[in-house]
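Reading a protein record of the kind used here takes only a little practice. To see the layout at work, look at the sequence and tokens printed below.
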Amino acid sequence: MSRFRMYPTLAQQVALREQCGHARYVWNLALEQWSMWRRDKGPTPSFAEQCRQLTSARAASDWLRSGSQTVQQQALRDLDRAIKNFSAGTHRRPTWRKAGRREGFRIVGGQATRVVRVSRKWGRVLVPKVGWVRFRLSRAVPTAKSYRINLDPAGRWHIAFAVVPEPIAAPGTGEVVGVDRGVVVSAALSTGELLYCPGLSEGEEARLNLLQRRMSRSRRGSKRRERARASIARLAARARDRRKDWIEKVSTSLARRFDTIRVEGLQIPQMTRRPYPKPDPERPREFLPNRRRAKAALNRGILTNAWGAVVRRLTHKAAGRVEKVNPAFTSQTCSDCGHCAPESRESQAVFRCVACGHRAHADVNAAVNIAAGRAVSARRETPARVSLKREPQLATSP
């Protein structure tokens, strides 16, 4: 996706919000049809049948007819694709769309090609039922067959063109790098570099806490609560923009500098899943402590350090050059002698081998093991010394 910031007028913002409402309404209505399917009932309507039903609904509803049929049919097509992906087991189950959350719609076809360059810094795009809308030319506009317009929680409009970026060519030096991801250090490289994902500053964190307390004390539906919510959304958008910028810069740098990039084969969705409640056998309707708050803090640290996004962008930019290594005990194995012992990890940042006395930063030591493709089995067998040229032990998919 190649995304640009849009600057619609007030009248265009009203029209864009109405288009978002039409797409949301059609999506939820079609999702309700699919969700009501039972084994004793007939098949749910197909995409073609739903398009015919949409034509009848537009004839009966002035509100629906005032919107673009292209936008509404595309919402049906997107849901049909989401259902097929869910049935194939590659994606999650499609969910309901709510007002104010992930607002947007997609345009496919001839409308998507109507982009005009106005000046060196500005361009405009023709949106059905809205007209020509300005957007900022922060880079060259790619040639795309579709684009998506969305509204983020901070109230900013964006247009994203659906294009597959060209992968970055390998430098041809034969160098291999290992990347260890963590909560304190976002990414540690086997070269000794420590990378930190930027977030909010101390002053911004203090203001965020103040706004959250103010919002919790405000009455629901009041203007005071809405102002606090908008301020919180702007701070969250600021942190999100910084994180995305860091992800793009780090992934581009690694793809340009190294021929092979090895990372841990982590199951992040399973790692960030909240713990299940444990019923107390002695007290009915009571539960045992399951360290949910501590797990929530760990999940938040994993997500804010963009573990999955970094690897995902690396696979796009360095296609075929990213290898996933079995992460078993890479943080407890000495990168110098190969001895594996949990006592060697003195603290979060210090690693001192109890066998040979090798001392290094704990995350860098793990990154060197990942670069060498070094992992041990669940029985903690000590692996033999491995050079960086050795083929990695790739993580097997479940």
Observations:
- The chain has two domains: 2-161, 168-200+248-398.
- The chain has ten helices and 16 strands.
- Residues 2-161 form one domain.
- Residues 33 and 142 are 37 Å apart (CA to CA).
